[in-house]
Amino acid sequence: MSKWTVRALVVSMFVCLAAPLAAGDDESDAELGLVAINVADLERSEKYYAEVLGFTRAWQYPPDSDEPIEIGLVAPGGGAGLALAHLNDDPLPEGKGRYGRIIVNTANAKVLAKRAEAAGSTLRHVTIPGENPPTIIFFRDPDGYEIELYQAPSQ
Question: How distant is the alpha carbon of residue 150 from its chain centre?
Answer without folding.
Answer: 14
